[in-house]
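Structural prep section.
Before we set up the soaks we want a predicted structure of the protein with zinc ion in place, mainly to decide which crystallisation condition to try first. Input record follows.
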Amino acid sequence: MSERNTQLKVSAIKDGTVLDHIPAQSLFQVIDILDLSHCGNPVTIGVNLESKTLGRKGIIKISDRFFLDEELSRIALAAPDATVNIIRDYQVVSKKRIELPAEVIGIAKCSNPMCVTNNQAVTTRFATVVEDKKVKLLCHYCEKTTEEFIPLRH
Amino acid sequence: MSKSLISINDFSRDELLHILSVAREMEETGSSKLLDGKVVACLFFEPSTRTRLSFETAAKRLGAKVIGFSDVANTSISKGETLKDTIKMVSNYVDIIVMRHPLEGAARYASEICDIPVVNAGDGANQHPSQTLLDLYTILQTQGRLERVAVNMVGDLKYGRTVHSLLQALSHFDPEFIFTAPEALRMPAEYKTFLEKRGIPFLETDSLMEHLCDCDILYMTRVQQERFSDPMEYEKFKDVYRLERSMLAGVRENMKILHPLPRVGEIAEDVDNTPYAYYFKQAQNGMYVRMAIIACLLGYR
Ligand SMILES: [Zn+2]
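Run finished without errors. Recording the tokens verbatim:
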């Protein structure tokens, strides 16, 4: 696939947000995190597209929707290398990398079955720790590390 | 939200030293009327007679009244009341809550939903900070210092929360560690990484004899049955180490043996009347340290 074709795919909406460079296996987690299945706007999803850096990647295009940085930063848990393209009138007007938040509140599940957050109605809260280029979550309550990001169900 | 004692990791070196100095004052003064008119709640959502008696005695020796429960069998919690509702209700009646709960993080959560101080008296396999403080107090008392102490931790170093918390607390004081454990119960990698990052030296062995003469503190622990799902596995490890009087020839003169108690077979009774045995005094220290914790959190010094 040529560079030009990819460009075309990325900018093929009039106004909105294009999330690119999502690892193919994390695509559905990103959809969950942004709660796109309950989003009324047109959403186009590309799966298993070729990527020079990721092998297979996913793209999500959301028309007429612009996210807050705080909302986007949550994606970093599933797709730390994702890029955000803001589209206005078919043009990419801004392109940025996602930044990992220092704290993650209410979107991830603690992997410790004995954690209070898995047994009482407690909002989860984690500090993010990067070890060997992997994002790990340190639970504010049970003090255990969750290695794999598990999204909480909405 | 007032200051609580939830995790040993929340306390700085100076805060730890402050509580230890108040504990020393408590040991010297004994009983007082310092907390006359105050009410302490001891909420034991899972039973622990030893810890509960130590906290209740501590509160009463300061002149406070104590309310609470020692298990949940006959309370509204057994009818499904949430932790939040119990804490909200009790916090309206008392000045401070001491709580033990089987869920990890329960005390942290409780401290966030009420306006009075909360003392964590054990949250599942997570933290038990009053135990750690009494261990520090005892090390200070027996060695005259906390800095540069060589501590040999023996037994279940994989699941033992007391050794993990003690390791973290001592990391403020330039220690040296020896980890004596069978292969399957060795110190987890995360704690060894924690030490490496701080440049704190440690050795590992599976032989109790190997470094017995190289330490100031011999911290013995029990292999806990409840940590093993397979009873055969427990049988294999429960008697893995047994310290006897005859093994103590050649240990450092200042060496003291600590144990969080209760012991099963790790320390033979003939060790009890050697000058190295200190575990009963250590348990008594628990009361002074808990007096200090309650007094400090209620604003004394
Ligand atoms: Zn947790």
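Observations: The interface with chain A takes residues 7, 9, 82-84, 101-106, 108-109, 123-127, 190 of chain B (CB under 8 Å).
Flagged for discussion at group meeting.
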